[in-house]
Amino acid sequence: MRWPSGKCFGGTSSINYMAYCRGNRHDYDDWAKKGCTGWSYRDVLPYFIKSENNLNEKNRKSGYHGTQGELYVSDVNTTLGSAVFVAAAKELNYPVIDVNGKKQLGVTETHQATVYRGHRWSTARAFLDPVQSRSNLHIADNAHVHRVIIENGRAVGVEMERGGKVIVVKAKKEVILSAGAIGSPQILLLSGIGPKAHLDSLGIPVVADLPVGENLQDHTFVFVDYYTNVTLGHSIETLESIETQLKYSLLGQGPLTMTGLAEGIGFFRTKWQQDNSADIQLHMLWILIGHTKKVDSRMVYNINPESWKPMEKAHEGKLGFSVMVTLLRPRSRGVLQLRSKDPRDQPIIDPKYFSAERDIDVYEEDGATSKVREGQY
């Protein structure tokens, strides 16, 4: 199974689908209640607004979006599939909302992404590129962090490898660890912060006996496929044409400015979700997954080869669209452990998908088409 990570400038904002979604306000408030002072939705919203430059005129006036920030957010090209998705939601009386606005339950009419003039606008382009000449900023590329150096219970620096040499960088004030859902726990474990039994088994001195790596959460999804008698999106031939490629490279316009296959987005709440937030998300894809071998969807979506072959055979050459039904709040908890003391070794990852029965219950109640209780908006 592939676990992509953003080991590059901009992190995963340089490799993801670019959809702009801040998360749910209830999560931020829950973190604050559990002791993360300063992380309530009211606390973080001003920083989202400050960092954003939203190019949608309606959103710019809503009070939830910024207009002067470094991170460009814009409406991106969509297909007939997106319009059909929104029309179907309206017919079923689901609200049409801004997923980063006052409420998140419902569907979005405009697909917004971190895109500027048809091109990806990663966090590196937004925040790093403009300040590279600062005298107090040093960027170390091709570097690999070994561990955080901890003295007397305080992080005082970082040990890293660069150009075949091990280098120690001391901090004057603080160390910020932001290496992602896989890299951060791996570095903590290498630094001696983690379950004592696991660290002892590898001969790593224990700095703090904490359950690092024991709360791995991942979003599973189910494809629901529909056949149609018309094309809802663009053909592969259109995307590969010289005209399309020139339009994109010269003008930053056309089908290639789309952020990928998914464009229609909706957030829904099943009966299993206790607070007023979503536990299911729908992604409307404008193609039928597996209809052509020119797009390696199996690799992109981490689909088991045994499941993929019959799907590909059934869909090849047919028209239609697919909907990804995504589990937002999995109860299943995976585990990440070190393979060895060598920082270059890939960690051992066991996602333990569906180890919690409730995750299956959500999909069953959802019917893979999101049956959501009426009025819970």
Question: Helices and strands in order, then pairings?
Answer:
Blueprint lengths: L24 H9 L7 H11 E3 L2 H4 L10 E5 L4 H12 L14 E2 L4 E2 L1 E2 L2 E2 L2 H6 L14 E9 L2 E9 L2 E6 L9 H11 L2 E2 L1 H7 L5 E2 L11 E7 L8 H5 L1 H10 L10 E7 L11 E6 L11 H4 L4 H11 L4 E8 L7 E3 L10 E3 L6 H10 L11
Parallel strand pairs: 1-2, 10-11
Antiparallel strand pairs: 2-4, 3-13, 5-6, 7-8, 8-9, 12-15, 13-14, 14-15, 16-17
Structural class: alpha+beta
**Total of helices:** 12
Overall 3D geometry?
globular
How many DSSP-defined strands?
A: 17
Helix content: 25-40%
DSSP strand (E) fraction?
A: 15-25%
C-alpha Rg, in Å? Answer: 23 Å
**What is the CA–CA distance across the termini?**
36 Å
Order of helices and strands: HHEHEHEEEEHEEEHEHEEHHEEHHEEEH
Average pLDDT taken over every residue:
90
The biggest beta sheet is recorded as: 5 strands, antiparallel
* Unreliable residue runs: 368-377
For the largest sheet, list the strands in their spatial order: 3-13-14-15-12
Question: What would you note in describing this structure?
Answer:
The strands form six sheets. A five-stranded antiparallel sheet has the order 3-13-14-15-12, covered by helices on one side. A three-stranded mixed sheet has the order 1-2-4. The C terminus is likely disordered. With 377 residues, the chain is α+β, with helices and mostly antiparallel strands. The longest helix has 12 residues.
